[in-house]
């Protein structure tokens, strides 16, 4: 009799091999565009009698004007405050009564709303989302109340959190002209000045079918759901196409530094390097480099700074290539008490210099590739994350086909590619450094 471990290996290997087939070939991803411009992407998955419905709007913090930061996020809140048909909070109550859950999220590039329900309740998502695409009330009194809620959220999550505030300050320094310089939640003065008219204009500009993408993943019949979406959303008139944003961040010509003095327990170092988005093939070696540096306690940065040199309490970072415009490759380190900022910062740069010299081994490279591929594959076991990956890719312009090519492109990354992108992007003239200097608590 084979051991349980051996059987598990066989099962996971078969599961892994199944998903090596591109998504669009292994499963029937369908894209349909209605006459009013609404895009629909469907993916049948009959493993359980449930579905995830997501509606994505191509609008986020990057679309906000000067003095109006935070309007995308505040409008997201207001989308739950009632329409002409459904009273305040009723949408959430209806979904809960039917055994489902719902929520929303806002980023720099998009705003999305979702419901997860049993297959026989799919009509609810269609009724609720088609209604609030058109009939949001935006009561002035509710706007004022929710504005205060968001202001308090900003205080708790950013202004009272030293690391979050340092990231915010670093982004504002790293981007001179691109709206990625502003936080998604908005600057406090802007939040306080947003009006009902601001929200209404924004809503009518961006919450239109030709600026939206519906993604449905789960247990349904594709032809049937497309027909139903047409019935609920097809009658909504097309709006004026929003003006496209074409802001190009100037090349950084030298290191930038920001120091934040704030009550905190330990010093932090945050470093951001300008790097390309999905449109550039360098994203694949940058993804692998990010894994080598930051993924888990065996990663280079964590192992060397936390374990071996005992210079940091944590060492992490990240790179996000699925963005509408180029962003940052970020490193963040929390210092161990007694260690100096300059000393630890030089340790970080030493690790990057080692990679530039070719210190990454074939074994280390293959481990990183395997981890990225495994995470990518197994994340798709979730209906929600299948839909989310598709939604992000479609909304920012990469298209779901980008996901089909992702693992192949990761497999093709070489040690020389890793060395080359480190030398190209992770250099002094291209970096912005944020330093948190702790202040003692005031008595």
Give an overview in words.
With 443 residues, the chain is of the alpha+beta class. The protein folds into two domains: 25-233, Metalloenzyme, LuxS/M16 peptidase-like (Cytochrome Bc1 Complex, Chain A, domain 1, 2-Layer Sandwich), CATH 3.30.830; 256-439, Metalloenzyme, LuxS/M16 peptidase-like (Cytochrome Bc1 Complex, Chain A, domain 1), CATH 3.30.830.10. It has 17 helices and eleven strands. A hairpin with a 7-residue loop joins strand 9 and strand 10. Helix 3 packs across helix 9, helix 5 (122-132) packs parallel to helix 10 (222-233) and helix 12 packs across helix 13 (341-356). The chain is globular and about 60 Å long. It starts with a helix and ends with a strand.
């Amino acid at each position: 009799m084979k051991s349980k471990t051996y059987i598990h290996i066989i099962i996971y290997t078969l599961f892994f091999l199944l998903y090596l087939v591109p998504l669009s070939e292994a499963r029937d991803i369908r894209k349909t565009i209605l006459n009013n411009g609404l895009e629909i992407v469907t993916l049948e998955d009959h493993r359980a009698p449930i579905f995830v419905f997501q509606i994505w709007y191509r609008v986020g913090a990057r679309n906000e004007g000067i003095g109006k930061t935070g309007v995308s996020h505040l409008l997201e809140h207001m989308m739950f405050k009632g329409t002409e048909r459904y009273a305040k909070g009723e949408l959430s109550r209806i979904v809960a009564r039917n055994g489902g859950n719902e929520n929303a999220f806002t980023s720099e590039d998009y705003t999305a709303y979702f419901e997860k329900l049993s297959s026989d309740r799919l009509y609810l998502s269609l009724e609720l989302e088609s209604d609030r695409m058109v009939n949001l009330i935006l009561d002035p009194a509710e706007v004022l109340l929710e504005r205060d809620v968001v202001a308090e959220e900003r205080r708790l999550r950013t202004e009272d959190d030293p690391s979050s505030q340092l990231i915010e300050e670093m982004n504002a320094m790293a981007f001179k002209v691109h709206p990625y310089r502003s936080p998604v939640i908005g600057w406090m003065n802007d939040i306080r000045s947003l009006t009902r008219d601001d929200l209404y204009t924004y809503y009518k500009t961006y919450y239109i079918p030709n600026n939206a993408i519906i993604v449905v993943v789960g247990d349904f019949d594709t032809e049937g759901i497309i027909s139903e979406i047409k019935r609920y959303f097809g009658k909504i008139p097309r709006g004026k196409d929003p003006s496209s944003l074409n802001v190009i961040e100037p090349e950084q010509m030298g290191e930038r530094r920001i120091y934040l003095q704030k009550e905190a327990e330990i010093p932090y170092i945050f470093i951001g390097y300008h790097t390309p988005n999905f449109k550039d093939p360098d994203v694949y070696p940058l993804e692998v480099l990010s894994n080598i540096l930051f993924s888990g306690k065996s990663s280079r940065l964590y192992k060397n700074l936390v374990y071996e040199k005992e210079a940091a309490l944590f060492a992490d970072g990240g790179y996000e290539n699925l963005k509408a415009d180029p962003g940052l490759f970020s490193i963040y380190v929390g210092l161990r008490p007694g260690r100096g900022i300059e000393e630890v910062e030089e340790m970080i740069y030493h690790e990057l210099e080692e990679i530039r010299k070719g210190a990454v081994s074939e074994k280390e490279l293959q481990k990183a590739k395997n981890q990225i591929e495994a995470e990518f594959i197994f994340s798709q076991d979730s209906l929600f994350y299948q839909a989310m990956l598709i939604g992000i890719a479609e909304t920012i312009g990469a298209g779901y086909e980008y996901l089909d090519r992702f693992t192949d492109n990761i497999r093709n990354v070489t040690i020389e590619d890793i060395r080359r992108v480190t030398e190209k992007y992770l250099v002094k003239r291209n970096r912005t450094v944020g330093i948190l200097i702790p202040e003692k608590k005031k008595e």
